[in-house]
């Protein structure tokens, strides 16, 4: 069937970590996270058999095997500022993001009685940013406050693959893929 899927809810357990190292006056940083989709729901609007009285014609569930992951690498110059304990960090980095959802249709349409849809997307690209680090350890106590802004260029690629079986045992596969280019902003705050 031809249609449009809209993800309404996804419960994801995520694990993340980061590592930093300072070499001379350069700060090197690596961040990564991985998440497993535990539960979720979405609506599938079928364009072939669309019913104006029931716009969400098929309800779908997320299945096991759905997951997400991200990673980012960056380098910054550790520059002192005019205020004690404050540093400004010009940053340059690269990030990668991936999502994969495996969806099961609760019911089929006419002869299509069993369908599984695989949706996957990834976007990646370079970014530039600016960090502000206020280290209370040098001035007051063992505390640190930091702000960070990033401007990202993103190359997007995503698609769906639909597998199904009919009442008569015929299998089929339909796929659709697309790519785009865009940009976005990221802001972070950290207190430890």
Q: Characteristics of this structure?
A:
192 residues, mainly beta, nine-stranded antiparallel sheet, 77% strand, elongated
What do these coordinates show?
Strand 5 and strand 6 (86-105) form a beta hairpin. Helices cover 2% and strands 77% of the residues. The protein is an all-beta fold. The protein contains one helix and nine strands. Strands 1, 2, 3, 4, 5, 6, 7, 8 and 9 form a nine-stranded antiparallel sheet that branches. It is elongated and about 65 Å long.
What is shown here, in short?
The protein is mainly β and 192 residues long. 2% of the residues lie in helices and 77% in strands. It contains 1 helix and 9 strands.
Helix proportion of residues, in percent? Answer: under 10%
Mean pLDDT equals: 78
Please give the largest β-sheet.
9 strands, antiparallel
Structural class: mainly beta
Rounded to the nearest angstrom, the radius of gyration is 23 Å
Query: Count of helices?
Result: 1
- Contiguous runs where pLDDT drops below 50 for at least 5 residues: 107-111
Shape: elongated
Q: What order do the helices and strands follow?
A: EEEEEEEHEE
Number of strands: 9
Proportion of β residues?
over 45%
């Amino acid at each position: 069937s031809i249609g449009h899927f809209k993800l309404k809810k996804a419960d994801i357990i995520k694990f993340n970590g980061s590592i930093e190292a300072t070499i001379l006056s350069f700060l090197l940083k690596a961040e990564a996270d991985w998440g497993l989709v535990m539960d979720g729901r979405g609506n599938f609007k079928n364009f072939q058999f669309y019913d104006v009285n029931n716009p969400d014609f098929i309800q779908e569930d997320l299945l096991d095997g759905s997951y997400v992951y991200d990673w980012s690498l960056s380098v910054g110059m550790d520059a002192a500022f005019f205020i004690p304990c404050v540093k400004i960090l010009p940053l340059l980095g690269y990030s990668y993001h991936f999502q994969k959802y495996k969806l099961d249709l609760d019911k089929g349409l006419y002869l299509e009685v069993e369908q599984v849809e695989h949706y996957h997307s990834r976007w990646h690209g370079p970014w530039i940013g600016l960090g502000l680090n206020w280290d209370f350890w040098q001035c007051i106590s063992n505390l640190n406050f930091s702000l960070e802004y990033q401007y990202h260029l993103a190359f997007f690629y995503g698609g769906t693959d639909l597998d199904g079986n009919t009442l008569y045992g015929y299998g089929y596969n339909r796929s659709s893929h697309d790519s785009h280019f865009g940009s976005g902003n990221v802001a972070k705050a950290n207190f430890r």
